[in-house]
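Quick one - first record:
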Amino acid sequence: MSILPYMYSEDSELLGKYLITLEGSGSFLEIGVGGGSNLSSVDRGRRFERIVGTDLLPLSSIRQELPRSIELAVTDRASCFRASTFDVIAFNPPYVPSGKIEDITTDGGLGGVEVPLQFLSSALSVLKPEGKIVMLLSSDDTIADLQQFCEKESLHFSKVAESELFFESLFVYLITREKKVD
């Protein structure tokens, strides 16, 4: 099992580029911060009153690199937070299709979406009712599983950014709860 943080790469960069365009206020959570680059970018924009990052791996190595205003928690996804805590939640989950999880930084399980859907479920439990979730997936992933999950949970999802690499395409999705019509 991998114990090194996820290294910033094309996928993290794509997610980061979208995150700095987000309008927001209130609270922001990044699940699985890796080296913390995207948290730093969000902090530089100063659009959020509270910025929090989580990771399963010890975060002491990146603590010195990040502004003190950013809160860090070593936890599994968003499991340590109360319901309806965050306005925006972002993550670049492990998404490489794999039969079993050997590298927790890249292996996404069956269809590449097993782990991302666990991230999404965890994020929904702490998302405010009008909040937004931003997640990254690959063309190698079974996007139909994401679509089914969103339909079942009454979520709206749309592709908001993409990048073509020579071996895959990367997609950033914006997910919100569907508004109920009275």
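second record:
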Amino acid sequence: MFLGTYAPHLDEKGRLILPAKFREQLAPGIVLTRGQERCLYAFPAREFEDMHTRLRQAPVTSKQARDYLRVFLSGATDEVPDKQGRITIPSNLRQYAGLDRELAVIGAGTRIEVWDAAAWETYLAEQEVAFAETAEEVVPGLF
């Protein structure tokens, strides 16, 4: 499980050094793709395969499902971290997420998310208010 928030830097070659706590889980391979809210999703390769299996169950007759799959999968790229725990983020994904040098890498359970640091701070500030004021059950049976 991926937890926490980290503040790595993107180097001049577009490489990200993965947080040390995440490296073992990601060593066999990682799949990067577009995420919601203009961040990147990074899945362990096995988790991405499982997700793809579930996504394939969407009806091909659903335009919304086709559109989602096209955007989600067309941006996907697989990487294997090097010995220093670095991965290269392709320029099209850096552009999509507006990534500059300062990043926020957050654990999101089964995946990590890579954000531009300023975008993450803005998003978090907006969402923390709603989070603190949540008065209804968000996940049935849990909260």
